[in-house]
Write a structure and sequence with these properties.
single chain, alpha+beta, globular
Amino acid sequence: ELDADWGSSSDVFKHDNFQAVVNAHDFTMVNFYADWCPHCRRFAPIWMTFESAINNGQEQAKDADGNAVNVRVLMINCVDFEAACQEQKINHFPSVRLYKRGAKDGNFFE
């Protein structure tokens, strides 16, 4: 469930704990978007190629020492998951952030 699709609320998962998703991986890179946003629509094919390469293991993420790290890349639809986006203080689209496991809630790199 932690790796469920946050692109739509129409699946069977609750999607109620964003911090649990972040804590399940060494790093989590998130594209916060809105369906109606033209910039998001143009960026989506590029992001989906990147997301697929990382999540399917075609590309291996490594730390500064060359050690493999557990990275999850995902998209969150802020129209369907407005509360999660407000909690993360998303105020423009698309917003791409990198979260590190164990960081305090709301700490990220933009």
